[in-house]
């Protein structure tokens, strides 16, 4: 059985399907997605958003540089691919008539640009979602135990509370990227009880996940998906 990580919080909403896939699916992660069409974006560690409202433009979205994608189209899986970076899956369950979902990719650069907040703001602007109603699942990613960063990263991220100094190693810190994204979501108006964060560290569990830190350039990518039914 190939493993799929799920958020119990997102599982409580029957209008969506979601999953954080693992390396059990190998290089062809499409096998783990239960819907027929995928919406991918060209992830570039930024904070641009694609509003994917046209099923005929899926090929175009795939070539669009962005790290966040929103849709109201049913049966189309929004895909984020990662190896240590943070995958975020969003939905607004407050209004069954206005179903909308989103997915985002946050490495340290995307986190510095606050892609989590940008996604919440776009849901608000384009679909009139109230931030307090938005529900977000943050999937397996590199955690504080394994994510050592240097001065360059420290200087570009404003929330210094999430950096833990390393004894006897000046200008290096351990950073908790998933927790920091959770904090950014709360600052954007998302309720604490509407945020689920996976405790799994991708770099600690190489049996389950690809890790860029541990495996380098050749690391595969695990896909995370969310789709409206
Ligand atoms: Zn770890």
How would you portray this structure in words?
Helix 2 links the parallel strand 4 (49-51) and strand 5 (68-71). 44% of the residues are buried. The chain is globular. It has a single domain, classed as CNF1/YfiH-like putative cysteine hydrolases (4-Layer Sandwich), CATH 3.60.140. By secondary structure, it is an alpha+beta fold. It starts with a strand and ends with a strand. It is built from seven helices and 14 strands.
Give a quick summary of the entry:
With 229 residues, this protein is an alpha+beta fold.
| Spatial arrangement of strands, main beta sheet | 4-5-8-7-9-13
What name is given to the CATH topology? CNF1/YfiH-like putative cysteine hydrolases
Q: Supply the CATH class.
A: Alpha Beta
What pattern of helices and strands is seen along the backbone?
EHEEEHEEEEHHEEHEEHEHE
Q: Compute the number of helices.
A: 7
Question: Would you identify the CATH architecture?
Answer: 4-Layer Sandwich
* Poorly predicted segments: none
Q: What's the overall geometry?
A: globular
Give the N-to-C terminal Cα separation.
Answer: 24 Å
What small ligands are held by the chains?
zinc ion
């Amino acid at each position: 059985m190939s493993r799929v990580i799920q958020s119990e919080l997102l599982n409580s909403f029957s209008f969506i399907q979601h999953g954080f896939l693992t390396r059990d699916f190998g290089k062809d992660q499409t096998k783990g997605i239960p819907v027929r069409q995928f919406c991918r974006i060209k992830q570039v560690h930024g904070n641009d958003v694609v509003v994917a409202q046209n099923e005929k433009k899926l090929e175009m979205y795939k070539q669009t540089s962005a790290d966040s994608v929103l849709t109201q189209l049913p049966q189309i899986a929004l895909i984020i691919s990662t190896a240590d970076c943070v995958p975020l899956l969003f939905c607004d369950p407050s209004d069954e008539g206005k179903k909308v979902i989103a997915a985002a990719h946050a490495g340290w650069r995307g986190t510095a640009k606050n892609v989590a907040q940008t996604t919440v703001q776009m849901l608000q602007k384009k679909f009139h979602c109230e931030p307090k109603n938005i529900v977000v699942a943050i999937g397996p990613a590199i955690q504080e135990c394994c994510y050592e960063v240097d001065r360059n990263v420290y200087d570009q991220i404003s929330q210094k509370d999430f950096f833990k100094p390393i004894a006897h190693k000046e200008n290096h810190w351990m950073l908790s990227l998933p927790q920091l994204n959770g904090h950014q979501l709360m600052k954007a108006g998302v309720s604490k009880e509407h945020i689920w964060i996976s405790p799994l560290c991708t770099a600690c569990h190489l049996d389950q996940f690809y890790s860029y830190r541990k495996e380098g350039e050749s690391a595969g990518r695990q896909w995370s998906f969310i789709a409206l039914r």
